[in-house]
Design goal:
Blueprint: E1 5-8, H1 19-24, E2 31-38, E3 41-51, E4 62-68, E5 70-74, E6 79-83, E7 87-90, E8 97-106
Parallel strand pairs: 1-2
Antiparallel strand pairs: 2-3, 3-8, 4-7, 4-8, 5-6, 5-8
């Protein structure tokens, strides 16, 4: 089971961000890199592979947008498949277990 590590290295300026080049700097799976802040929300990118633990977020809803690959999210009653270019909103307090078979990246 994996755990998430968050790296905060963002100074906000009006500059474009190349997602692919940022992905190339990530060396560990499930390690979030903060790219920007939008109001009170952080935009983070990460690489995924293997299983993550069943968990929930009590501090707000979470959005997972798949940049490349396919991610599965297991819920108590179903499993959702999220592919490149798709996203899922996971409501606050909902238990879920993400997993990736072949590697993926997400925002």
């Amino acid at each position: 089971t994996n755990r998430i590590t968050i790296h905060k290295t963002v100074k906000m300026e009006a500059n474009k961000i190349n997602i692919q080049s940022q992905l190339e700097t990530i060396t560990e799976f499930w390690s979030l890199k903060e790219l920007a802040k939008v109001n009170n929300h952080a935009i983070k990118i990460f690489k995924l592979k293997g299983d993550f633990e069943m968990h929930k977020h009590d501090n707000g809803d979470k959005v997972l947008l798949i940049v490349e690959g396919t991610m599965f999210v297991e819920f108590a009653d179903r499993t959702e498949e999220i592919k490149t270019g798709e996203f899922i909103v996971i409501p606050s307090g909902v238990e879920h277990k993400p997993y990736v078979k072949d590697g993926a990246s997400a925002l």
